[in-house]
Amino acid sequence: MKLFLSGGLFALSWVAGLFFLRYWKKSQDRFFAFFAGAFWLIALQRLLLLDPGTRFVAYCVRLLAFVVILFAIFDKNRAPRR
Amino acid sequence: MTEAIYLLCAVASIACAALLLRGYMASRVRLLLWSGLCFAGYAVNNLLLVFAPVLSPGWTEMPVREAVALVSTGLLVFGLVWESE
Fold first, then answer.
1. The pTM is what?
2. Which among A49, A46, A72 has a CA at the least distance from the CA of B32?
3. Residue range B21-45, pLDDT digits in tens
């Protein structure tokens, strides 16, 4: 069950990243590029969680993904036309 | 140290959800709503992780926590597909 959920989360995060990449390509708005990067970091974090030895690193990667999202929001608010 | 990272993840995901949903309220761009709901799910996931020792010692390995994240990410992907041309 745990592996099924992890696999599902990895795949969905990867696909979400691909969608954001397409939005970035279409709009040239780097807000979407940050989102794509963040969701791929979340996908990477899912892989790292499979090994109990890299659990701490995995949660650091997850935190980094959230920080990227926060940075994207602040960047967007600072330059609303981009 | 690990608990501190869990707490930081929870705080950061709550901030992401709040800012994205606030952005949706201001602009009515539905992509922000889907993203905000997704991060609200991550916030629940992270809060369950932080409070796992209080709730139950076995909670860190319980699938409920990951199921919340799966549903919220699924909701986002649904929104991305729905909004795409």
1. 0.91
2. A72
3. 999 999 999 999 999 999 999 999 9
